[in-house]
Amino acid sequence: NAGVTQTPKFQVLKTGQSMTLQCAQDMNHNSMYWYRQDPGMGLRLIYYSASEGTTDKGEVPNGYNVSRLNKREFSLRLESAAPSQTSVYFCASSDLEPYGYTFGSGTRLTVV
Amino acid sequence: AQSVAQPEDQVNVAEGNPLTVKCTYSVSGNPYLFWYVQYPNRGLQFLLKYITGDNLVKGSYGFEAEFNKSQTSFHLKKPSALVSDSALYFCAVSPYYNQGGKLIFGQGTELSVKP
Fold it and tell me: Among residues B45, B43, B42, B23, which one has the least CA distance to residue B33?
């Protein structure tokens, strides 16, 4: 089915470990986004990519890096995980027109 | 600063009664407005959007939303609630149409519909 695929769905890390969250979309969308969801805080934008080859910081970029590998794929990397990065991470994509986002099913990350 | 507010953390409604989930925004210009729904352990799903035109927008699952420019509000409504409507609802605004279409989300409202 067409949509946004995120891997992994669950992950437990120890403080200081690194990992990469993967995201791929098959809708030929130009823009891709990484959000984190924390209770009572809604979704906060970490990084986004308006088009292939470009990335920009969002509201909460510290501790994260991203790569827009090609038009389909947008990965999020935690270089040295901290307990404050325990969250649910969502990838989304959209076209340039304001048709809204298509979200992936999320990655639940726990840092101990 | 650009922001979206959902003043109620939780809304409780009896099945069959009308429901309203409130949203107000603070952005410059003419924003694009959205509602999303999130079921447990799932990603967000698009419900409806307001871009321009008629202030009453109809969306999925019988939901509708009313845009009020003077009150800067975009409340989500449904005439008759179902137990299956119980979920987390997010209002979002896009003031950045020319900058990648970034959305700003409210903090979410938990809707609970009891039989």
Answer: B23
Does the distance separating the beta carbons of B90 and A42 come in below 8 Å? yes
For residue B41, give Cα distances in angstroms to A45, A107, B52: 19, 10, 33
8 A C-beta contact, residue A105 and residue B40: no
A42–B42: do the CB atoms touch at under 8 Å?
no
- pLDDT at residue A95, as a whole number: 80
The minimum CA-CA distance between B59 and chain A, rounded to whole Å, is 13
Four-residue CA torsion sign, B102, A36, A78, A18: negative
pLDDT, position B30: 78
Residue of A nearest to B93 (CA): A100
Q: Which residues of A touch B59 (CB under 8 A)?
A: none
Distance from CA of A106 to the nearest CA of B (A): 6
**Mean pLDDT calculated for residue range B22-49:** 90
Mean pLDDT by 10 residues, chain A (112 residues): 89 97 94 92 91 91 96 96 96 78 93 96
Chain B's closest residue to A43, CA to CA, is B105
Q: What is the pLDDT of residue A97?
A: 61
